[in-house]
Design brief:
With 206 residues, the chain is largely without helices or strands. The chain has one helix and no strands. The termini are far apart.
Amino acid sequence: MSQLTQVTPAATPRGGGSQRQAKMVRSLLGRSVAAAVLSLSLTSAHASCNPEDAAPGVSWSGCDLPGVDLSGRDLERAVLTRSRFDGADFSGANLEGAILSRTRLVSADFTGARMRRTDLGSAEATGAVFDGADLQLARMTSAQAEGLSMQAADAHDARFTDAHLRSARFDGSLFSKANFDRADLRETQWAGARLTGASLQRARLQ
């Protein structure tokens, strides 16, 4: 008669398995919560091209909103790149830190707008109006902005390098420490403008 050998299951270290399982559950829950928060954040920031969605940090890249009225709206840190806002009204709006690079802003109105650190690099802003705007530390490098009006504005330490600004009006504006290097400044008007410490190296004046 064959002898039966009793097999005893190996003992599981106390608490080891359950602790590992609990740790895995916590890790998975943490990742799920993080993903949900990120999803909500992206959904709130990236809005459709609806003017009613105007809000700080809104993403309107590639939108076509000519003539839209955004006067007085809060668009701080908004992303408006590669969009079309020809003839739009941004008067009195808050655009601090907003990005409008490579955007069409032909004849747009930024009268009295807050535009500190706003990026207008390579924007097409022919005939746009920035009268009385706060443009301190703003960037308008390589912008196509012939005939713009920037009168009684504060553009302290702003950058206009390589910008096309022919026939622009800068009367009564503050451009202390502004940079106009290599900019096209032919036929521009500067009555009462202040350019203390401004740089105009290789700018085209005639």
